[in-house]
Amino acid sequence: MFKEDFKDHLNDVKDEFEKYVDKRIDLLKLHIVEELSRFTAGFAVKMGILYLLFFALMFISIAGAYFLGHILESVTLGFLIIAGFYFLLAWMFYLLRRKVVEKPVIRSFVKLFFPKFEDDDE
């Protein structure tokens, strides 16, 4: 009698544990889907904004090149000055890539996937 009750109790505990593990797995899946959805939506919005800003910057650059060309009486020189400015920007960006790009990207991923560590500075 005791043996059967104990066996039934162990089976109940086993069933409850399996249910618990299944629920935890479902919760983890939901959390992963939520975070991936948030990441994908944020990425799509940022890419759209960057795409539009790229075209705005391109047209402003062309206008600036023509403006400088008009002032200097050489359209070619205007475009060369604008191109030189962008090469200078690219070189500065390359030199500051770790501080400007890598660290903020790593920090963003940590905040995205581990939100409870957002308050930590390090």
From TrEMBL:
Family annotation (InterPro entries): Phage_holin_3_6
Name of a matching Pfam family: Phage_holin_3_6
Transmembrane intervals: 48-69, 75-96
This protein's UniProt keywords: Membrane, Transmembrane, Transmembrane helix
Name recorded for this polypeptide: Putative Holin-X, holin superfamily III
Species assigned in the record: Alkalitalea saponilacus
